[in-house]
Amino acid sequence: MRWELLLILLVACAAPEVHVDRVPADMREPTGVPASVPISSGDQQPEVPEVSPEPQPEGEQVLKTFEIEAFQFGYEPSTIEVNQGDRVQITAWSRDVPHGLRIREFGLNMELRDKTPVTAEFVASKKGEYSYRCSIPCGHGHRDMEGTLIVK
Question: pTM for the full model?
Answer without folding.
Answer: 0.60
